[in-house]
């Protein structure tokens, strides 16, 4: 299951915008969340916080989705600045005609960068 949290398009967290989504994966691991693109929050680039819950994981894994069409904001983001090139690239969603593509890889050569708390 994939769970998402985000700010509204103005970068706010308020009662007028839910900002939360939860989606089970299909048998092939696919998932979709339909939402509005978030705004900047506290000097951070627009992003969606993501938790992945899966059989075999003792705890959820946490990552973020950033947007390829926000190069200036991404360059100034403190979280992205602390990562290497491969790690940053694993967090960037690619635009498409009807939204964005973002694949989550739990392991392997294209493993998504995950954060610990």
Descriptive notes:
This protein is of the alpha+beta class and 117 residues long. It has a single domain, classed as Sandwich (Protocatechuate 3,4-Dioxygenase, subunit A), CATH 2.60.130. It contains three helices and six strands; from the N terminus they run E-E-E-E-H-H-H-E-E. A six-stranded mixed beta sheet has the order 2-1-3-4-5-6, with no helix packed on it. It is globular, with a radius of gyration of 14 Å. The two termini are 20 Å apart. The relative contact order is 0.17. The model has no long low-confidence stretch (mean pLDDT 93).
Rg of Cα set: 14 Å
CATH homologous superfamily annotation: Aromatic compound dioxygenase
Count of strand segments:
6
- Determine the mean pLDDT: 93
Secondary structure category:
alpha+beta
Q: What is the CATH architecture descriptor?
A: Sandwich
**CATH topology assignment:** Protocatechuate 3,4-Dioxygenase, subunit A
The largest sheet, given as strand count, sense and whether it forms a barrel, is:
6 strands, mixed
Query: Could you say how many structural domains there are in total?
Result: 1
CATH class term: Mainly Beta
Proportion of residues in helical segments: 10-25%
C-alpha termini separation: 20 Å
Number of helices: 3
SSE pattern: EEEEHHHEE
The poorly predicted ranges are none
Q: What percentage of amino acids are in beta strands?
A: 15-25%
Overall geometry comes to globular
